[in-house]
Amino acid sequence: MARDDSYLRIETVTKRFGSVTAVDQVDLSIGTGEFFSLLGPSGCGKTTLLRMLAGFETPDVGEIYIDGAPVSGTPPHMRPTNMVFQNYAIFPHLNVERNVAYGLRKEKLGREEETRRVNEALEMVKLGGYGQRKSNELSGGQRQRIALARALIRRPKVLLLDEPLGALDKKLRTEMQIELRQLQQSLGVTFVFVTHDQEEAMTLSDRIAVMAHGKALQVASPKEIYNDPTDMTVADFIGQMNFLEASVREVSGDQAILDAAGFGAIKAPARRPYVQKSARLIAALRPEKLTLSESAPEGGANSVRGKIEAAAYLGDRSHFHVRVDGLEQPIAVAGPDEQPGGGSLAEGAPVWLSWSDEAVILLERDRG
Ligand code: ATP
After folding, report:
1. Quick check: 340 pLDDT over 70?
2. Helix (H) or strand (E) segment spanning residue 45
3. How confident is the model at residue 311 (pLDDT cuts 50, 70, 90)?
4. End-to-end alpha carbon distance in the chain
5. Of 40, 91, 282, 319, which residue is most buried, by most CB within 10 angstroms?
6. What's the mean pLDDT in 147-165?
7. Which residue, among 313, 308, 292, 294, has the nearest Cα to 355 in the 3D structure?
8. Does position 178 have pLDDT exceeding 80, yes or no?
9. DSSP string covering 272-296, please?
10. How would residue 33 be classed by pLDDT, with cut points 50, 70 and 90?
11. pTM
12. How far, in Å, CA of 127 to CA of 124, rounded?
């Protein structure tokens, strides 16, 4: 089947609860077979958006289309979607088989067909043979798989998952992430996954919508969101970032020269329309894009002097805080703690920071 990139279309959707705008003019499309995440802090509107896809809420403004048809008047059980909740509501008095068969209660199937579908769903989530187990005899991860099986048994085209791994401990959560991704790929079902955990969204997703205050700030692949954030809130929310106040001195072709606080004159790519002469912007630099050295880098371009204020050894890499004159906040740097020449970077040591032009991301100041 050819991929339909707008199988799910959310068109300028707004949802208010009293004076709270939970979802604010969200406009995005999700393709068939895509693993799509809604990522953002608590209260940003991701669950409300998911519930509108499921049909538990109706948009105040805008429309949701599934496979080209508007669905606002369509109740949840008539949609090709099914939802998995965080507190997965497993019935303790029912065995695994009955819990999973519960997903079929609206479909009037014969006993034989029902058993076949239950077994098929249990196989999908690697719980084949567990049908007769009492559900309170299972681990957290196994219970989460029952919830998945119960949602998948209806053979939805879209699975909506609301923080499904939120109740699991870190190790189990990582294991289940891998399983979820494998399951999604083998079934080819579209997953819309809600999480506030950026690492989880980055690991699992084909694309992510980063949300804040009801808005989808950026919709892109994990790589793009990390390497090329288009918004300060996104840049701040994903990974670690150093932010410098900067003003544009001049733009020539696709390169700009800026005066950046503490760093002096810096060069940066000028690919975005707001990079104009005299504009006051934010220059953002990821910690791992900065290099530390004990002596001045050759040529001296894109470098600044500082002093190591704190160093933390993490085994495979180290984190440093470097104090630069004229800046309130220290600059965060990530990299090896050994110098190529054998020297090590200790607290209090004077250092040089250097970076490439391409490492600088120019962002508009947050208007919020
Ligand atoms: P969390 O991760 O905490 O679930 P979220 O990003 O999923 O957060 P939502 O649950 O969608 O956020 O909530 C968005 C905003 O809408 C919040 O301010 C919330 O208090 C409000 N809200 C959500 N549902 C309702 C409701 N039924 N009645 C009133 N306000 C609501």
Report:
1. no
2. none
3. confident
4. 43
5. 40
6. 91
7. 292
8. yes
9. STT--TT-EEEEEE-GGG-EEESSP
10. very high
11. 0.89
12. 8
Contact 251, 267 (CB under 8 A): no
168 and 138 Cβ atoms separated by less than 8 Å: no
Nearest CA to ligand 1 atom 27: 17
Percent of the chain past pLDDT 70, that is, above it, reads 96
Task: Provide the token pair at 88.
Answer: 């997965």
Three-class SS state of 161: strand
Residue 105: partners with Cβ closer than 8 Å, 6 or more residues away = none
Average pLDDT over residues 132-149: 85
* Residue 51 CB–ligand 1 contact under 6 Å: no
- Token pair belonging to 20: 């709270």
Give the C-alpha separation, 246 to 265, whole Å. Answer: 9
Q: In this structure, are strands 35-39 and 190-195 parallel, antiparallel, or unpaired? A: parallel
pLDDT tens digits, residue range 198-232? 999 999 999 999 999 999 999 999 999 999 999 99
pLDDT of residue 168: 80
* Residue of minimum CA distance from atom 17 in ligand 1: 43
For the chain, the maximum distance between any two Cα atoms, rounded to a whole number of angstroms, is 78
- What is the amino acid identity at position 242? N
State which of 13, 20, 197 you would mutate to test the pocket of ligand 1, scoring each by most atoms of that ligand within 8 A of its C-beta.
Answer: 20
Ligand 1 pocket member 47 (CB < 6 A):
yes
**Could you identify the residue written with the tokens 């506030």?**
196
Task: Write down the pLDDT at residue 225.
Answer: 96
Bin 328: left if φ > 0, else alpha if -120 < ψ < 50, else beta: alpha
229 and 218 Cβ atoms separated by less than 8 Å: yes
223: Cβ–Cβ under 8 A, 6 or more apart, which residues?
none
What single string gives the DSSP state of each residue in 228-266?
S-SSHHHHHHSS--EEEEEEEEEEETTEEEEEETTTEEE
Written as six digits, the tokens of 221 are: 């692949």
Residue nearest to atom 11 of ligand 1 (CA): 45
* pLDDT bracket for residue 175 (50, 70, 90): confident
Spacing of C-alpha 32 from chain mean position: 19
Q: Tokens standing for 103? A: 């997903």
pLDDT of residue 140: 80
